[in-house]
Amino acid sequence: MTEGRSWPIEAAVVDLDDGTSLALHTCTPDDERGVVVLVHGIFGSKEDFDTVLPALAEEGFTGCALDLRGCFESTSPGPFSLEVFAEDVIALVAEIGSDIPVHLVGQGFGGLVAEEAALLEPHFWDSVTLVSSGPGGLGRTRPLRFVEDALDAERPLVDIHREFLEILGLTEEHPSTFITERLSATDPRAVAAMIDAAENTPDRSAALCATGIDFHVVYGEYADSWPVPAQVAMARKFGADPVVLKGCSDHPAEDRPEATARALVQNFLELD
């Protein structure tokens, strides 16, 4: 590794047999210690990890963040479901191939996708890290119910997202040009599938433990999408010590990318 080097992010596309095209952002160091696949949450995209990818490369890990099918630049005719999202992640890893360790990281809803991928193909992953996520869905909470009802009313995703943030106590009076572009390009069917899974996925802790995969739990000090006590309890079931990132919300990869990368890498290196 080269101290202080600027690691470029490269865009790529992987085409799947069903007509889905997965858009990727990757960052590759000279000497790879492993591959890290990163999965975003509801209303998110690969760009959520653009600040953490170079930090992972600085530590010697290739980072690969994708847009889930139907999200931003990943186009798909469908179908959309938690299982299909996970199958896409598996297909991506099979396509890019790797003879070095592969670590899967899911943020928020992306954690449910990572869990599903772990259950479908446990031999693919050297570790799975859940960032501000949980072992199952949240039930029909007020924010999720709002999004579900607004989607049924065919409201624009930009408007739904703004009111969703307001319900969470966050303010975004004027969404950035990028957020508007991302949500305008996202398929509402993909978001509907995410909401359904976030509401209805059961707790799968026992099945996940039975895979034998090393699971890790990371969350921000001020995380509140998934209740922190539930995340701590999940970590204990996995036999893992949860990592709490100070000064971070539910999105530590954006709040403190270098600290997030260090926390992830420390977990990976414990497997050596």
Automatic annotation (TrEMBL):
- The lineage's top-level taxon is Bacteria
* Domain annotation AB hydrolase-1: ranges: 36-263
Question: Is this entry keyworded Secreted?
Answer: no
**A GO biological process held by the record:** acylglycerol catabolic process
Matching entries from Gene3D superfamilies are given as: alpha/beta hydrolase
User: Under the cellular component aspect of Gene Ontology, which terms does the record hold?
Assistant: membrane
Record keyword Hydrolase present: yes
Q: Which GO terms describe its molecular function?
A: monoacylglycerol lipase activity
UniProt entry keywords in alphabetical sequence: Hydrolase
Pfam families according to UniProt = Abhydrolase_6 (PF12697)
Listed PANTHER family: MONOACYLGLYCEROL LIPASE, MONOACYLGLYCEROL LIPASE ABHD6
What is this protein called in UniProt? Alpha/beta fold hydrolase
